[in-house]
């Protein structure tokens, strides 16, 4: 076999015959690493001759109902679309220390059938310590500390587990590729061998993947295309809440999320996200508002905190946790134009409770009210919540699943919810006791919340 070496971008997988400093396809610097490739496919004339492969009519294809493996974990099942499909390959990505290993060992321990946990990162005793913390030791879960795929495959064959966990794909190596573990070629080859094995033997595999500084799963982008399901485990490692989000799923929707809480004895499922809000109900403080958000298909209320103060240094700071900073800047610009607030000399800090990242545009209304409330030092009553997107002209736009949001807010005990006036038609039929206030412009919202109350306070 002829060997040649090429330079491969470790960020996107682009290749080049010679070393280059900046990747022409992903624009990253210093990402090219020399890798040896063995050309195994030779497009010799024999390859494309007639074979046994024949297309079939779609009506002739028989589908057998897939029996999914129940992971005994409602949140995990929910994200997958009802359990693990046999033979599927699931990639779980996340920052270091977020709890990928904890989640996977918990799943491996919880499944009543035999499971195999392969670790290239930790020793068997470290894994045992973790399992002891989770206070669950079963004889069904086997541990293998190994990094060479050629040794892992026979071990899986021999033990015939119902699920294999690989922690992590970046630590694996195959003798087929000469580059070091973690390089694009190694990751791609190892994943390819494991995926083929999973499909041929109908054994599902969970691959744990590290993410790089941009938040993408490290290694070739094609890894995400190769597997059936990609899940992202998110959260702030200094907080307790974690969100498991589906990014790609060949066997279900990607609109579901799973919510967990990291405790000293492992990850607890948060089946009722309303409890994320616990701190709020005690006092009336300025800068705190509540949003009736929807993440995935689930409604929940979440607290938004803001602090606006005079900029200590020349350049005002904009700092957010759990919210997009660009979006905050946009909202501040709208506030400046529409309500005349000069926030360009102020520092603005914004936090979403629990360190959770929410991708719901309906958070906008509570973000601007939190900022205004902090700036004016006027508290928003604690039994009021918001659900509305803010447009560039200051209009309050309608949001998805507004009924669900209203019902959830009502269930948790809120007395008033602010929504867009554009919902007028949709919500006529909802029976509710909560007071629904419809607004069409942020000027209007501002007047309702602050101007009237300020004059009564004076
Ligand atoms: P880990 O699963 O090792 O993260 P990853 O594999 O994503 O790098 O979890 C790391 C953190 O979780 C670690 O800082 C300790 C904490 N942890 C708990 O709080 N409780 C537990 O029961 C366990 C096992 C870990
Ligand atoms: Mg780990």
Give structural attributes.
Rossmann fold; 21 strands; 458 residues; nine-stranded mixed sheet; 26% strand; alpha/beta; globular; Ribosomal Protein S5, domain 2; binds thymidine-5'-diphosphate; binds magnesium ion; four-stranded mixed sheet
Descriptive overview:
The protein has 458 residues and is of the alpha/beta class. The protein folds into three domains: 2-39; 70-271, Rossmann fold (3-Layer(aba) Sandwich), CATH 3.40.50; 275-457, Ribosomal Protein S5, domain 2 (2-Layer Sandwich), CATH 3.30.230.10. Helices cover 26% and strands 26% of the residues. It is built from ten helices and 21 strands. It has a nine-stranded mixed sheet, sandwiched between helices. A four-stranded mixed sheet has the order 13-14-16-15. Strands 2-1-3 form a three-stranded antiparallel sheet, with no helix packed on it. A hairpin with a 5-residue loop joins strand 9 and strand 10. It is globular and about 80 Å long. It starts with a strand and ends with a helix. The model has no long low-confidence stretch (mean pLDDT 87). Residues 94, 96-102, 130, 133-134, 262, 264-266 line the site of thymidine-5'-diphosphate (TYD).
